[in-house]
Amino acid sequence: MRRCASCGGSIAGEWTQCPLCRVRLEAGPDEATGTPEVFPPVPLRFDRRQLWAAVVALSVLVVVASFAAQSLVPDLVAPVRTVWLSVAVVWLVVVAAVQRRRNVGSLVGWLVVLLSLAAVAWNAIDGPAYWATTWVIPAICTTANLALGVVVWIIRQDPTEHLAKAVLVALFGLAPGLFVLFGWVVTPVPALVCVGFSVLVLVLMVAIRPRQLGAALHRRLHI
Questions:
Q1: Cα–Cα distance between 86 and 167 in angstroms, integer?
Q2: C-alpha angle 37/43/49, rounded to 5°?
Q3: Beta carbons of 46 and 156 less than 8 angstroms apart
Q4: Do residues 188 and 176 touch, judged by C-beta distance below 8 A?
Q5: CA 113 to chain CA mean position, Å
Q6: Where do transmembrane segments lie in this chain (predicted)?
Q7: Which domain holds residue 133?
Q8: Helix boundaries (H) for 101-158
Q9: What does the buried/exposed string (b/e) look like for 108-125 if buried means 16 or more CB atoms within 10 Å of the residue's CB?
Q10: Are 15 and 109 within one domain?
Q11: Hey, is 11 helix, strand or coil?
């Protein structure tokens, strides 16, 4: 039996971290003897059909709406192209969540950062002024937040994963807002939509998984 130096709990089994506060434990006799864990990790289960049905329906709806908007307003060619990129982002995020399920937040964060940097580089080489910061990056951040919301809604994950996704949603909403403050946009509408949508997703995440987020905050802040 080992004792956690952070929360003082007594822990049996082969845990490398405290199951309550996630602080790393020192090696003890339980690891050598192979004592079974008192609180074994809970498998992450979800309905794949429900997830894919939600993503497919959402993608079809967005693509059809984009073609309708382009037919009504021909000047929307650039925004419509960012919509198609956004659908690809949704699929990448959901596929990453299905395949990996744990530590998805870091993967999604890197995906958004790399796509945003690629858009900025493309804009610098050949593109209209502030095209990336006005349309592409807000679209990427908005759809990444949408995909994260779908993942939180359908997939039950470790509480720390839910907290990490909430932080990502806040950051993805903050970045386009900074673009508006610094004057890096032609029109502020896409960035403001991204900020508002991020707030909505955060509210829904708290409403859908209040216990998981509360447990994660309890672990991180030791309250």
A1: 20
A2: 175
A3: yes
A4: no
A5: 12
A6: 51-72, 78-98, 107-125, 131-154, 166-184, 190-208
A7: 48-221
A8: 104-125, 131, 137-154
A9: bbebbeebbeebbeebee
A10: no
A11: strand
Distance CA 163, CA 206 (A): 10
Q: Could you read off the pLDDT of 84-136 as tens digits, one per residue? A: 777 777 777 777 766 665 666 777 888 888 888 888 888 888 777 888 899 88
Total domain count, the chain: 2
By the 8 A CB rule, do 144 and 89 touch?
yes
The model's pLDDT over 15-59, given as tens digits with 9 standing for 90+, comes to 777 776 667 777 655 444 455 444 444 444 556 677 778 778 877
To the question of pTM greater than 0.85 for the whole model, the response is: no
| The two structure tokens encoding residue 26 | 């020192």
> Hey, how many other C-beta atoms are within 10 angstroms of the C-beta on 178?
12
How big is the chain, counted in residues? 223
160 and 59 within one domain:
yes
- Tell which residue, 210, 175, 209, has the closest CA to residue 192: 175
- The H or E element containing residue 132 is none
Is 200 in the same domain as 134?
yes
Residue 199 token pair: 């707030």
3-state helix, strand, coil in the chain (%, to 5): 70, 5, 25
Cβ–Cβ < 8 Å for 3, 10:
yes
Q: How far is Cα 25 from Cα 15, in angstroms, rounded to an integer?
A: 8
